[in-house]
Amino acid sequence: MIIKSKTGWQLIDFRELKEYRDLFYFLVARDIKVRYKQTVLGGLWAVIQPFFSMVVFTLFFGKLAKIPSDGVPYPVFNFSAMVD
Q1: Apex 83 CA angle, 78 and 84, nearest 5
Q2: What are the C-alpha distances in Å from 13 to residues 3, 7, 19?
Q3: Based on the structure, what is the number of domains in the chain?
Q4: For a tag on the chain, would you pick the N or C end, based on fewer CB atoms within 10 A?
């Protein structure tokens, strides 16, 4: 048996994706579990970490450095900058 790759750009083969959907779900679930398994807070860490980063940036840049945010509330200003 000889396996050859397809040449050029290939769109998603939805028939093949449907055929192997169980494998796809298993791999996605495994990646999520591995990523958050070693943290005490689990998946909640994905929400807590950006929130605490926003708080720290607001304190240092907003209160201590007094960087202007042009009328936008400073936590919103920081969070929008971190999302980019």
Answers
A1: 105
A2: 17, 14, 10
A3: 1
A4: N
